[in-house]
Each structure stands twice: as C-alpha cells, then as structure tokens.
Write a structure and sequence with these properties.
Length: 203
C-alpha cells in the first residue's frame, strides 16, 4: 500500500493568475516556490533536486526541481504539463474504472483512471487552471494479447481525452514492450524508453 506524501516547500497557492514575463517586473518561473504532492517514493537526485518514482496507482502534482520516473507495463500514465505555471501532474492508473462493489479508502487514489482524473481535476481547480491549460501525454498500455488490460486502459484514456477536447501532444502506447518514463518538472521535458517484452497481459 502506498503511503501518502505531502511535501510543501513554502508553496504559495495564492499564485494563480497567469504571469507575463514581458515587462521585467514579474517573478520569473525559476523563482516560483516548488512543491510536491505525491504518493510515490521520493529520494534525492544525484543531479540535484529530487526524484520521485511512481508505481501503478501512484500520482503526483508539483512544480520545481523534480524528476519523475515510472516503469509502465499495462498501466497507462497520464502526464500533464501546464506551461504557464510550470506545473506537472502524473498518474499511472492500472484499471479504467472502479469495479462495482469495490470501495476505496478515504483520500486520493490513482489505481483507477476515473479516480485519477477526478483527483487531477481538483488540483487544477485549486490553481485556477482548467483542462484547456494542459498539455497531455499518454504512455504505457503494453499487452500480450488483444483485449488485455493494456488495451482497455488505452481506450479509456483516449476516450477521456476526447471528452475533455484534449489532443495529446505525445502518445507512446500499446505494443508488447515495457516502458520507462522520465518527466522533468523543471522544464516539462518527457522521455520514454523501451525495454523488454511484457510477460503478462495484466502486469
């Protein structure tokens, strides 16, 4: 069971209005306070700053010198970048929807896609952002046979994005390969490396 981690580094949630850098009087992005809210594993990054490793069901919302990594099999990562605030969010969901009769614990959870996007929507609302501010990328959804968990996760994520009128800027989904995701919250850069073949359709 993942632990809940909230790490506020003098974050000021009052910084909500879009800022222009044209006059030279506004605070540059590099001076905005960093913060991290995540259920992932946080550790020091040898390159400076911190890194967060996400497992299936983990989520993250934050800003600053943070590097996010995740290993993806059938799980699909929703990777969100909000350029005007240098904010990032990631959730690695393992199933599209919570099965009937299954109730979650109190608090946020990212195991199910429908819960993950509800959690992200709450975070966006707190920062006065909406889905039109988001650059979305999708990764993962590996499968070994048609109709497996990976394919279901991909279909759900793509349908949800279409409902929100969000065109993903990057998609690396499907196939039979494991993926390693690396997302840098300092600049929004995202890289996805392919590894070995997935061993089970529901990993």
């Amino acid at each position: 069971m993942t632990s809940f981690i909230t790490d506020l580094l003098s974050a000021d949630v009052g910084i909500r209005a879009p800022m222009s850098l044209s006059t030279g009087h506004e605070t540059p992005f590099s001076d905005l306070p960093g913060f991290l809210e995540s259920s992932g594993v946080v550790s020091a990054d040898p390159m400076g700053g911190r890194k967060v490793m996400l497992r299936p069901g983990d989520w993250l919302f934050g800003r600053g010198s943070l590097r996010v990594t995740a290993m993806l099999g059938a799980s699909v990562a929703l990777v969100m970048w909000i350029p005007r605030f240098r904010l990032g969010a990631v959730c690695c969901f393992a199933h599209p929807q919570r099965p009937g009769g299954v109730y979650g614990l109190e608090g946020a959870g990212g195991m199910y896609g429908e819960d993950a996007v509800r959690w992200m929507d709450e975070r966006l609302d707190r920062t006065s952002c909406d889905w039109s501010d988001v650059e979305l990328s999708l990764a993962g959804g590996a499968q070994q046979q048609d109709g497996g968990a990976g394919e279901r996760n991909i279909r759900w994520a793509q349908a949800w994005a279409a409902d929100q009128a969000i065109e993903p800027v990057q998609q690396d989904v499907g196939g039979r390969v494991l993926r390693k995701l690396s997302f840098n919250l300092a600049d929004g850069s995202l890289t996805i490396a392919h590894g070995g073949r997935i061993g089970s359709p529901d990993v």
